[in-house]
């Protein structure tokens, strides 16, 4: 039985999804650090982690301690994008359901190495996108987010995860 939501967030968008999921499911919610003291090992959890270079942050640490019922990667890309890349880079077992959720981006919320990486990324990938004449609507959103920041956390994006959770309750 799934007993908790555990998450790793850097700039706060993954924490917002974890909170939203908590409101909808009534499951208790913990950051990965908090969970260490609060949650017994081998508890079954829903894990959410932010995506860095396709890698779901904190996933491997969480998987060592808990049983992951499903994993949600919070990213800049559209919800449902990058599933193959994230599964492969994070080494998520094929049996574990995986979702990606569009989070947000705010350069002012980043510090140190992460800020530097995104400044480079905004210059390179951002420039590439800006010069592209046949951008898709998803790429328009990405470009706008890189240039001006933005928060795309929404209940609508979380819907597939909520539907999956409801399905689990019936088993
Ligand atoms: C260093 C760095 C690398 C990132 N790499 C990716 C990526 O590979 N794909 C993506 O869609 N978003 C990427 N992002 C965007 C974050 O996943 C996104 O901003 C997310 O909402 C952050 O969640 P948080 O606020 O919980 O930290 C990256 C962000 C940073 C800072």
Fold and architecture overview:
With 171 residues, the protein is an alpha/beta fold. The protein is 49% helix and 23% strand. It contains seven helices and eight strands. The strands form two sheets. Strands 1, 2, 3, 4, 5 and 6 form a six-stranded mixed β-sheet that branches. The chain has a two-stranded antiparallel ribbon with strand order 7-8. The radius of gyration is 16 Å and the shape is globular. The mean pLDDT is 96. Flavin mononucleotide binds at residues 9-14, 50-54, 74-77, 103-105, 110, 114, 117-118. The site of flavin mononucleotide has 22 residues, from helix 1, strand 3, strand 5, strand 7 and helix 5.
Counting DSSP E segments of at least 2 residues, the number of strands comes to: 8
Amount of beta strand: 15-25%
Q: Which residue ranges are poorly predicted, with pLDDT under 50 across at least 5 consecutive positions?
A: none
Helix content: 40-55%
Major sheet: 6 strands, mixed
Tally of domains: 2
N-to-C order of helices and strands: EHEHEEHEHEEHHEH
Instruction: List the ligand species.
Output: flavin mononucleotide
Number of helices, counting only DSSP H or I runs of 4 residues or more:
7
Q: What is the CATH topology of the largest domain? A: Rossmann fold
CATH class of the largest domain: Alpha Beta
Q: What's the CATH H-level superfamily name of the largest domain?
A: Flavodoxin domain
Report how far the terminal alpha carbons are from each other: 10 Å
Structural class: alpha/beta
Overall mean pLDDT stands at 96
Assign an overall shape: globular
CATH architecture of the largest domain: 3-Layer(aba) Sandwich
> What value does the Rg take, in angstroms?
16 Å
